[in-house]
Amino acid sequence: MANLLLSNPLYSLPKSVRRNVLALKNLQLQHVHTEVEFFKELHQLEMKYEKIFEPLYEKRAAIVSGAVIPTEEECKFQNETEADISNELEKLKGDTETDNEKTEEPDIKGIPEFWLTAFKNAPAVADMIEEYDEPILQHLTHVKAETSFEPMSFNLEFHFEPNEYFTNTVLTKYYEMRCTPDESDVFAFEGPEIVKCKGCTIDWKKGKNITVKTIKKKQKHKARGAVRTVTKTIANESFFNFFAPPTPPENEDDMDEETQSILNNDFEVGNLIKDRIIPHAVLFFTGENLIDDDFDEEDEDDEEEYDEDEDEESEEDDENDSSTRKKSRGQTGDKTQAPPECKQQ
């Protein structure tokens, strides 16, 4: 105990200074309790404005699905860059077309693959999407969040048009939050944190459940030597596992690292969808609101010096590495998912 006290910087201070610091810590504790009230009021304010935003999101959903065709006046939105690009495209179109060879653009309903493209432009969500998830997510027409106060929580709703994969029209994900400091570490409080989540049951049509896969294994009888083939059903990687999160133990100390990692990622994705993707969906669709925290910009002053001879020797290896990276990133190295080409429907 004595060694612990001596290692604490606070106890190396003169007694009079230490008393003042302890008084400041009491003020900090009051600050934490005031923060709790601040975040509770902020949550209620969020609920208020959620109702104000809702008509905008409903109108967006109607345009995305094609149920509403916006008027010419509603479509008049161009900044200077977009106006310049539009003018150049019109000139280019005029130069390449003759009076007798006017190409007719197909009349597309709504915005195909809107949410799929938006999700693929959000790295944390894109990492969850497998190739076989995409045909299903093409049927996603609307995503909304509904916030509640008692208990502090929010519910995500994923609306789907009729499809060949499952009978649900809405899939839901519920998150419950805690807005009280942890008694064991009061000063670590930074606001509400998600403490648990709950998914929903997906009513898959026969043979369409992509969250599981079947494998065949051969088994040999120890005594007789006879061989038989057995079929096993195992879990399969899929975005739709998002709706079946693991159940944490009642005692957080009993949680294993794998479950903790899955839930941490799940909470991150839930917050991302609620706070970033839903409010700014069109900007994720166009790739204007990308999130990439994996890489930080480096200052020019931080560039390392290198030896020219070593650089020449490693040039071939670098080219091979570059080629490999391009293949793994779709040749372009750009993580942005371009809005899909519209297909005539």
Automatic annotation (TrEMBL):
GO terms for cellular component: nucleus. Keywords: Nucleus. This is Nucleosome assembly protein 1-like 4. It is found in: Nucleus. GO terms for biological process: nucleosome assembly. Residues 87-106, 291-345 are annotated as: Disordered. Residues 291-321 have a biased composition (Acidic residues). It comes from Oedothorax gibbosus. Belongs to the nucleosome assembly protein (NAP) family.
